[in-house]
Every structure is written in C-alpha cells, then in structure tokens.
Amino acid sequence: MMTTNAAQNAPILTVDGVPLKTQLHRAERLNRFKSLALIAPLAIFLVLVFVMPLVAMLKKSVDNPEVHDALPKTSAAISAWDGKGLPAENVYASLIADLQIAYDNQTMGDLGKRLNTELPGYRSLVNKTARALPLDPKPASVKAALLELDERWGDPSYWQVIRRNASPYTSYYLLASLDHKVDEQGQIVKAEPEQAIYLDVFARTLWMSFVVTILCLVFSYPVAYLLATLPTRKSNLLMICVLLPFWTSVLVRVAAWIVLLQSGGLINSFLISLGIIDQPLQLVFNRVGVYISMVHILMPFMILPIYSVMKGISPTYLRAAISLGSHPFSAFWKVYFPQTVAGVAAGGLLVFIMSIGYYITPALLGSPNDQMVSYFVAFYTNTTINWGMATALGGLLFGATLILYIVYSWLVGANRLRLG
What we know:
Domain ABC transmembrane type-1: 202-408
InterPro entries: MetI-like, MetI-like_sf
Transmembrane segments: 36-58, 206-228, 235-252, 289-310, 344-365, 385-408
CATH architecture of the largest domain: Orthogonal Bundle
Family: Belongs to the binding-protein-dependent transport system permease family. CysTW subfamily.
Mean pLDDT: 86
Protein name: ABC transporter permease
C-alpha cells in the first residue's frame, strides 16, 4: 500500500528526466520572454517618440535656469540671506562679478526677461548696471557704489526676486497657472485680482466642454439608434453622411460656419425671409457660434462609440419588454438604454477630452471671453515664447485628462463587477 502511494506522489518526468511541472514552467517563461521581445521594439519606439518628449516638455514647467546660470555666485551667496533687510556685502560683490560675465557672454537678455516677469522694471535695472561696469567703489564699498548707481538696489524686493529664483527649479509657473504666487516671506498666497485669470479660464474650458459633450450626446444618440436599426442600405447611406466631415479640414468647416452664421449669412437671411426675425441674430464671434461649430465637428466621435454598442444589442429584448405590457418609452429607458451606457460613457469621455484641448474653433468663432486654455498655451508658445507658462498650463490640462481617464476606467471596472 505504501509503495502504491509513493508511486502516485512521485513527480511525472519527461523523456529527458526533468519533472514535467518544471518543464512547463520553463516553457511558460520562454513564451513570456518571446512575447516581451516581440513588443519591445514598439515599447522602445513609444518611449522615444512620445514619453520622453512629453516628459521633457513638462519639465520646462519647473525649469528655472536663467537666474541660476547667469548669476551663479550671487545665487550661492544669497542663500545665506534671510530675506529681511538688505543682503551682505559679499552678495553685492558677487552680483557685480556675475553681471560682468553675463554682459561679456551676451546672456543678459534671458536674465532680464526672467527677472522682469516677476518684478516689472528689473530688466532695465540689470541692463543699466551691466553697462555701467566696472564700478569704481569710491564710496565705502561695492554695496554703496551700487546704491549710488541706482537706489533700487536698496529695495529688498529686488533681492528677494533673485533669492526666490536662485534654484534651477521653480514652482512659479505652476503656481501662476493656478492664480497663486510666492510672496516676499516665501509663503504661497493668491495672486492679485487683476492677475488671477487662469482658474476662470480652466473653469470656462471645463464648462464649455461639458456643454458641448451634452449637446453631442443629445443629437448623436438618435442618429446612432437610426444607424443601428435602419435597413443596411439606408444605414450605409446615413453612415457616409456621418463620416463625411472626417474628410474635410477643421479649418474649412470653421470658415464655412462663419459664412453661415454671420449677420448677412445664409441662416440669418433665411430666418428673415420667413419673417421669424426682424434683425439678424448674433450667432458668430460669441459662445453660440463656438458651440454650434464644436458640436458639428465632434458629433461623429460621439455617434460611432454609441453605434458600435447598439449594433450588438438584440432588438428582441425591447420587443419582449413591450409584449409583457411595458410602455414603449419605459421599455426603452429600462431595458435598452442601460445596455448602451458603455458606448455613451466612451463617446462622452472622448468628446470631452477633445473639447478641453480645442483651439482653432474658439479662436476663430469666439470672442475674447470664449477662449479656452489651449488659446493661452498657443499664446505663450508662439507670441511671448514663455515655455514655462505654456508647459505649466498644458501640463495641468494633461493632468485633468489623465484624471478623467482614471475615473472612467474606475467606473467601467465598477460597472463590470456589478454586472458580474
């Protein structure tokens, strides 16, 4: 009996004398390695052309090399200053030495621009000081010579700007994007009302994107239902109409809407000819025109996900509910609509994410009060060449998109668990 049990518990061996379980584990590891080797080129490609450039751009939102690189001695010396009163004599001497080198190396432009961003008038001060070098400290010290050259060097706020920017990294751009700043005591405080615009811009962007998403859903759901229920021939014709905008440039479509919506355009002329209105409606260069154009452009991105889900729903469910005595609307709402929630969520997320990054449509069809975050990203990128603010705003927009995607994934996962 014991011999029989021992024989049953003995491991099964392969022809090579290796236990079968060990051989299976080896084969599994080999297959996993082959799979990783197959996707490795794609993963490396994505890291090189997508992840690394994205990280490099986002890093610019905290990069602050101008002051640190142009004034290295001053940055090191001013670190011992507590920010109260005026810095010590060695800080003044370090500033003179750094400005002389920066002036000779022609790096004063970036330095003055960065300092002027935080304190207007700083560019003229450093340029004036650099042109006056070398100073002759006929008074008691270099500090006295600088004060004699320009009394602003006796204002602690100018030195506090250098002290805040002595590090190669800064939170200035991110805080400015959230309407906050670091005060003279190093505390994070709200920006002045005349400078606090970006939170309103983010709120406007999210609200306009939400409205566009809801309008797209309202108009797209019936179209998707028709696509899923019409006979094949009619459905294909309607699908061509849905996909036709994909073959037309967004810029061309926006220009077409300007022609249609302007005061002397076709829509106003048609309404006046019918006697519905006496004066042309203001449909362009305001939020109404932005909504109309964005909904028209983004509707296909809402229709297609909903249609793909509806196509897999059997019509017998709805007919069975009606045959059992349910009202057609009640049957649709309680039986059919819940099965399309996944398509509605996917289409809504896609449209909302695309909406928050829109630039061309609000820029051409909207007023200054209708511009979204992307407008300011383009402004800082193309006009003022302020990469810090551009990447800070873009990074916050990117973060909002990631949060939306995480929430969507969580909702989909919770829904699957509930259905399971």
